[in-house]
Amino acid sequence: MTATLIDPEVETARLAAVRRYRILDMPPDGTFDRIALLAARVFDVPMASVTIVGEDHVWFRAHTGLPEGLCQIPRHPGLCASVILQSDPYSVSDALTDPRTAANPLVSQLGVRFYAAAPIITADGHRLGTVNVLGDQPRETTFQEMRTLTDLAAVVAGELELRLSAMNTVALERRLREQAEAERRRLELLTSTLRRVLLPPSPPKVPGLDIATLYHVASADQVGGDFYDVFRLDEDRWAFFLGDVCGKGSEAAVVTALARHTLRAAAVYDGDPRAALANLNAVLLDEYLGADPCYCTVVYGVLTPGRDGVEVSLAGGGHPPALAVRSSGAVDALHTEGGMLVGLLPEAHFAVANTRLEPGDGLLLYTDGLTEARTRAGHMYGEDSLMGLAAKLAGQSAEAMVEQFEDTLSAFGPGLTDDTAVLALTVPPIVKRHSR
Fold first, then answer.
1. Fewer Cβ neighbours under 10 Å: the N or C end of the chain?
2. Where are the transmembrane segments (predicted)?
3. What is the structure's pLDDT at 186?
4. For 49-55, what is the mean pLDDT?
5. How far is CA 24 from the centre of its chain?
6. Which CATH class, in words, describes the domain spanning 8-153?
């Protein structure tokens, strides 16, 4: 990287973004410590950190392997202060001999020889700081290592976005309790915005699968705790999860954000379903140590598409079973017997179920807002009714499935008291071509 001059206007806007995100005011919670540890493991180096670059100092929000109590260093060029001047990841194979970095205190005082970093970039393009790794021996980097470092920086950026939204919502809810009905519309708008932030964008394109999602809102002025996501693990596998946080409102929103991003971050290191749930269980217990427990139910699975179907391996933690809807009309409930609530007990057990989706088959995941809804006659909808509905959807596309669920949920009216999330995955049927 050649020397880059600082654009005063860009720097002013960047520093304003640092203040807006209130990053330096956030108390340590261990989330970014896990990112630093994961980065160090990926590169097999002794040191890593998550930093925010201020006007005159580089602030450490998390680090591993560096001196205990290290909070900041002067903003010298060459390392973190140089990374934020560009959008691409940056590496120095030998910092001691590189004129850009030799004078940096991390090099001259702590003996850092190797350095690699990726900028933490906000949704509107501001580079707040870095996720970086440091070693005491010179070394080169690989493309895969730098891509992983970029992914970890994106996880930090996403966590900051969600925390900012959650903190703003908490503050607003506190004020709105004291306001009149005229403030209700603004609360509804803010709640809707938060839902859009908490839920992922449209599902990705997965070879050999059709995917559709649904989030049905029960109350316009409450944020529920339902969450889901589908994302790539590697060239051959994809991960998915769907869960439900206990409770509603701003606290549920905070836990929802933490759960979703913990599961994604954990998958970078270990995509095994049980390992992912165990990691989330440990994070929730650590986050709310000494406070009222915040727990959730989750189904986390891995998809391995093949030429003529998809292998599915999933683990459950206290969540209703996923439904394998066969093209024949049969419905298999994939029970994960004994799977415990996530975030409640230190030694939680998570059970595994495996299945295969053939062409024409589908997989349905849902939260209990659906099964616990009451019909207009006052009867609980229940799992038997759900199984019957699923059987009628056999052979249909994922999009058609969620449309039918939307119609069913809308018909409950006031009998639906909890948000409902649905994730549908289907393997398209084989189209037979008739010869002339």
1. C
2. none
3. 64
4. 91
5. 22
6. alpha beta
Contacts of 171 (CB under 8 A, 6+ apart): none
Residues near 61 by Cβ (< 8 Å), separated by ≥ 6?
23, 26, 28, 32, 49, 50, 51, 52, 129
Q: Which of 342, 302, 343 is nearest to 319 (CA)?
A: 342
Whole-angstrom Cα distance, residue 367 to residue 242?
8
Instruction: Answer whether 98's CB lies under 8 Å from 92's CB.
Output: yes
The predicted pLDDT at position 25 comes to: 77
What tokens does 252 get? Answer: 């549920």
Spell out the CATH class of 200-426. alpha beta
pLDDT number for residue 188:
58
CA angle 226/260/27 to nearest 5° reads 115
- 108-122, 140-154, 210-224, 376-390: which range is least confident on average? 210-224
Q: CB neighbours (10 Å) of residue 434?
A: 4
Residue that has been written with the tokens 């209130």 in this structure: 22
What pLDDT is attached to residue 322? 96
Tokens of 260: 């979703």
Question: Angle at Cα 432 formed by Cα 429 and Cα 435, nearest 5°?
Answer: 170
Reading the block at residue 170, the tokens are 């908490």
Q: Where are the domains of the chain?
A: 8-153, 200-426
Report the alpha-carbon distance of residue 410 to residue 183 in Å, rounded. Answer: 26
Mean pLDDT of the 339-365 span:
93
Dump the DSSP string for 12-67: HHHHHHHHHTTGGGSPP-SHHHHHHHHHHHHHT-SEEEEEEE-SSEEEEEEEESSP
- Residue 153 CA, distance from chain mean position: 13
Question: What pLDDT shows up at residue 3?
Answer: 47
Please report the pLDDT score of residue 2 as a whole number.
44
* pLDDT value at 189 more than 60: no
Distance in angstroms (rounded) separating the CA atoms of residues 102 and 79: 10
Residue pointed to by tokens 């189209």: 431
Contact 217, 416 (CB under 8 A): no
Q: How far apart are CA 379 and CA 22, in angstroms?
A: 48
- pLDDT on residue 52: 92
